[in-house]
Write a structure and sequence with these properties.
The complex is a heterodimer of chains A (225) and B (254). Chain A has 8 helices and no strands. In chain A, helix 1 runs antiparallel to helix 7, helix 2 crosses helix 4 and helix 3 packs across helix 4. In chain A, 78% of the residues lie in helices and 0% in strands. In chain B, helix 6 links the parallel strand 7 and strand 8. The longest helix of chain B has 16 residues. Classes of the chains: A mainly alpha (225), B alpha/beta (254). At the A-B interface, helix 5 and helix 6 of A face helix 2, strand 6, helix 3 and helix 5 of B. Chain B: One of its GO terms (molecular function) is ATP hydrolysis activity.
Chain lengths: 225, 254
Amino acid sequence: MQAWGISVLFEGQNLFRLVDGLSVSIRIAAVSIAFSAVFGILLGVLMTSRYRLIRYICRFYLEAIRIIPTLVWLFLFYFSLTKILHFHLSAEFASDIVFSLWGTAEMGDLVRGAITSMPKHQMDSGFAIGLTKLQVYRYIVIPQALRRLIPSAINLATRMIKTTSLVVLIGVVEVLKVGQQIIEVSILKTPTASFWVYGCIFFLYFIICYPVSLFSKKLETKWQQ
Amino acid sequence: MAKQSNEKVLEVRHLNKKYGETVVLPDFNFEVQRGEVVVLLGPSGCGKSTFLRCLNGLEEIQAGEIKLNGQIINADATKWHVVRQKIGMVFQSYDLFPHMTILENILLGPIKAQGRDRLEVLQQAEKLLERVGLLDKKEAYPSQLSGGQKQRIAIIRALCMNPEIMLFDEVTASLDPEMVREVLDVMLELAQAGMTMVIVTHEMGFAKAAADRVIFIDQGQIIEEATPELFFTSPKSERAKKFLNIFKFNEQVS
């Protein structure tokens, strides 16, 4: 007798395995978001450098990351680079690297935008009331740059979480891969398994990304005034 | 408005300012007595705003000296952030800090730069707000204010530092015409209260009413220097006549 499709999720350890797979996705996302935040701010500051050479190098890095699809970067790091340089990289570690590189580039561009969009006379008025350069950054530039930055930075974070699903293609067993495995096992017995499994994955991504994007909306309206 | 003493607050000798190869101010000499109101006039691009910015170190100068109360302030060792506490400046652009309330805008300098007591500054700030009729806006954010109101707040923010001298850089130039008056009134009141002021403006009526001395500048040089009565009724130089004519035409048209 054909079981209810949804029961696929509760057979054996299936649900637990899916959540476990999700934790791999989250791990990759969390590591790369953390690195991107730190190095992205650094890159962003460098991109506003007075020195043209530094700006050009940063720009080249950003464009290289953007022009080449993330998937190609994953293949490049996992299959090609390791072959040429004769060392082994775990698939998850390669993913960490690629997503950190990507996030850093995007974050850097956001930071650069936030800094350069600050009108010059904001700093002048800070200086005019006797603040030191450090105080001008501390009380005027950074608080305003952060406000401009945070909504788009959070948007980037959710994009990174979603894009981690690509790592399945270099063999990382994350939530999508686990889902495929479950489907393959149950498809004969439960033809609708794929619907329920992917539906569940959809829901799992949703409960992670939605609060994040809600949070960013809230910040946005709060700082709009 | 003969209330100034013979005490020089600010003295500038042989100031030279260049942007790269372009000389903006070749050799500028200037002084202001305590309580004096000096208005700088001149066609746009003549260097008057640049000069004002040199006075509190927002622009680097290439040669010359600037003295505040007899002390040279443009030496290499100058801590400009300390000097600027004595020189208030208000700009053309609405330059309030948008992420702070009006009160926070005013308190920032006195508390963080001067290290004064919050309660004492608060009392002074509220008194000043009262004086310009904006006490009810103290908890508002700059975006909730009109241009004229913002500019009045910017003036108070500078005043709350208890400066020795106030610099005004075309503070009404980007205001809607109906808001110019409220800002000029605050400045006129300040002038009458004996504040030392250097003002760059295109408001001729205001210059006539408030100035003790008018300085006409063209191409970075002082062309003429006179009392407002003399300057506006019988300018000596051709360039000043030409300049004033433009404004006469404007007055006739409007």
